[in-house]
Amino acid sequence: MKVNIISKNFKTYQKLEDKIKSKFEKLSKYFSDEIVANVVLSHQRDKDKLEATINAKGAIFRAESVAEDIYESLDNVIAKLSRQMSKFKGKLQKRYNDNKALKFEFLPDLDEEVTEPSLVKTKQLELRPMNVEEAILEMEMLQHDFFLFLNMESDSVCLIYKRKDNDYGMLETKY
Question: Domain residues for 161?
């Protein structure tokens, strides 16, 4: 497995890079082809964050962890990735049966039954024209993480959402 390590506001060193590559090399037994893992290290507010993404030709595994110590974050991310691979073993076998990039025999079976997600609720709403600031205020008043509205400035359907860093993001549709 090829491991790309990117540092953002984080000073890395050889021992840490070797440890990261060693841990990710243990995950390579799950894949038949040469797979690339992208690892991003960053430091935020006295905590270390590690994000990892593995693209396995049709299946994407992603995990992140924030902890006091980067080694703790690394262990958490490896555990999350292993769990994701095990959890979706049945689903991936069914969906990607012809995908030779994944070696399913190495993935352990989970005790719990993996069920396909289903649509459990449908809601219709009337979009009201408003500007972005009004939409953010409405979202905050409703205590939601996202809010759908008709942007009166661009005359398009937009989705405002709260990001993990407590800022806001907006998706604007084109049709």
Answer: 129-172
